[in-house]
Amino acid sequence: MKYKRILLKLSGEALMGDLPYGIDNERLKEYAQEIKNVVEMGCEVAIVIGGGNIFRGVAGAAKGMDRVQGDYMGMLATVINGMALQGALEDAGIKTRLQSAIEMDKVAEPFIKRRAERHLEKGRVVIFGAGTGNPYFTTDTAATLRAIEVSADVILKGTRVDGIYDSDPEKNADAVKYNSLTFDEVYDKNLKVMDMTAFTLSHENNLPIIVFDMNKEGNLQRIVQGENIGTLVNL
């Protein structure tokens, strides 16, 4: 096993499956099974989920909503997604803890670094909700921050595409995929891997990122075992 402790970043949109919005229970079950497979290998798993399937603060601000208010609404959406994934994981027999950057003690623990690390050591999956707890920061930044805080070996960014391309493969059939990139190459080519705050934080802390297709069965397990799946970004 190549990676002992991972931070899995999922977009909120990933939970929609084929629905126009909300949460697809079948997709949740699929993800829970993929995560269960790597937990049973002995991998320690932390997760950050976006909230775009429910509410996106930037979109609200574009329509005239106060940006700060919109971002807090987006944070609450990530907690809803975290609760949904927690339920699916526990139905699959995996012990899970949900920690929130905003205190809401009826549904989640507060984020405490040492407690999160202890849960991971005990084989529990830890889901981090409510982003960083601050407006103007994305869940990509939250994922990178939490990965650094709990000393994850890698950030695994699960998407609908199988890696990083020189252009959008869903719009351009001739898009070329990169198997690996350095952080500097991502900057130079202006590739969209994560938002710049998250990406810079990852670069400065020498934390590799793998972008991969989360919807292909077995991909997560193969990455943890060391197979070259998706696109690796490192120094």
Short descriptors:
single chain, 8 helices, about 240 residues, two-stranded antiparallel sheet, 11 strands
Describe the structure.
By secondary structure, the protein is α/β, with parallel strands linked by helices. It has a single domain, classed as Carbamate kinase (3-Layer(aba) Sandwich). The strands form two sheets. It has a nine-stranded mixed sheet, sandwiched between helices. The chain has a two-stranded antiparallel ribbon with strand order 7-8. β1, α1 and β2 form a beta-alpha-beta unit. α1 packs across α3 and α5 runs parallel beside α7.
Quick structural overview:
The protein is α/β, with parallel strands linked by helices and 235 residues long.
